[in-house]
Description:
With 624 residues, this protein is mostly beta strands. The protein has a domain at 507-622: Sandwich (Immunoglobulin-like), CATH 2.60.40.
Amino acid sequence: xxxxxxxRPNLDLPRLELGRRDFMKAGAAVGAMTGLxxxxxxxxxxxxxxxxxxxxxxxxxxxxxxxxxxxxxLSGGHTGEIRVVGIPSMRELMRIPVFxxxxxxxxxxxxxxxxxxxxxxxxxxxxxxxxxxxxTDNDYDGRWLFVNDKxxxxxxxxxxxxxxxxxxxxxxxxxAVHGACMQLPxxxxxxxxxxxxxxxxxxxxxxxDPDAYGSVLTAIDPETMDxxxxxxxxxxxxxxxxxxxxxxxxxxxYNSEEGVxxxxxxxxxxxxxxxxxIPAIWDxxxxxxxxxxxxVPVVDGTMDSSLNEGDRxxxxxxxxxxxxxxxxxxxxxxxxxxxxxxxxxxTVIGVDEIxxxxxxxDAILGQPRVGMGPLxxxxxxxxxxxxxxxxxxxxxxxxYEAAVEAEAGSEEPIVEKHDVxxxxxxxxxxxxxxxxxxxxxxVSLNKLSKDRFLPVGPIHPENxxxxxxxxxxxxxxxxxxxxxxxxxHDASIVHRDKIEPAKTWDPDDYDLDFVPEGxxxxxxxxxxxxxxxxxxxxxxxxxxxVTVREGDEVTIxxxxxxxxxxxxxxxxxxxxxxxxxxxxxxxxxxTFTADEPGVYWAYCAYFCSALHLEMRSRILVEPx
Length: 624
Ligand code: CUK
Ligand code: CUA
């Protein structure tokens, strides 16, 4: 029996189900309370919701004890982590350390996670931007989450059964893996979009010869996390997204000038969206048409490459106004929409047209003028695109089929603009990256919060604002402001039915042998090596004390023998910098050198019962 169930009577309460649209009809009037400052275009005549309030809309609140409808996986920027929030409540449910050691979850404290960090390059931090959940048949399968490290050029995988990082790949020939996405429909490959141009390999050659620098798209096998191949391109790249049918991958780019200063990088009015023909790249790799650099096949996808001559170029360069930033493919798979950043338009590229046109510019089917500083675009299930306007501090909702019909530069496709507070980067709508978005909630990840919260010193929180977008007549309704620690970039919103988290560990899912009660052991292997196998339960460890000698290399393998979910223990060893977190049925191992004689109280840092404070063990390190 599960003792926690008694403490949590609400776990199985009925879910918040649809019917939101009915609620909305009543709620819209409450929301219609602010002006439309800054709006320049066609607006819903029923007005916008709550520009100045943080929307107390009860119909989107989640009562205590009730569960949210969606998981939101937010990147943590230069904290290096992933944050899990419930949507629509925006309650933060968990944090998943990815590129950084973190003591509450013991990540980087036990042998396995330390090894993941070490083999991933040994850096102490990362910069997560784009969390993308694996898909099967263009829908979330809840298996993995992939996320880039923009700082140190890496890609990580998070296991969504245990909500734990299980692999980090340190990508060669690349500095700043920025965009991240998969080959769809079935996560055949994971792509990292290289940003900063560097010599390849970056080993001291060509240090001051920017013409010799390069930037690559990297394809990674999602199962092994091995790099399969890379494609070198001209100019910087930035963000990326995959076509729904698996042939094309799109990456925005800036710095087609290949400059190394800001002035040089923004001289030209034209940059490119690069469309990578994945099967054609595989053909090139299989035919041996690559150069091996740092152990990876690198295919030449630059404009002048012979692989870009003929009728099956590996990379097509679609010209866009300067420095497009985000790119995302519409749910129907028909268009890749790039957001202009330094240009007030979005560029709508026909996905099927890419293969058909002689001049890639002819694949551009629409170019609506959406507003100042367009950065990223998300989708609902009704043909609308939602684009963040960084400079205007707005989200613009527009109709992408109307944009294909309209003249380039037209504002006609715009349906609505809604203020956000302030300066949004990404935005994400529920299941927007799949073929079937839910069309109900949208979160705008605003970089600045300015005056929205109590001041907390000169570093302000950011502001993640949640909107209800399910009622086109009422318009976007601001439901919630959520202050956010720096700094989420992108997110994925996944329906809770598609994620199946484990309640306790299954010992078959890790390599270490579980240590049941009665099978604890203390073994002195030789004069300077000790191996301890022990367990933890309420409120004790297998050994009330262990004695080792100064200089011993001590390995502790410890299992949490609890079977009751949510009874977590840890073993913290002060002054040896150790804190292993142990969920029920989990086993972790750590090795340290007992180089300081003395008494060290190992203790449990998770408050696990009334006798939690007594849950400890003495580690006696005798002088030699
Ligand atoms: S990027 Cu940060 S706001 Cu890394 Cu997707 Cu645009
Ligand atoms: Cu175990 Cu506290």
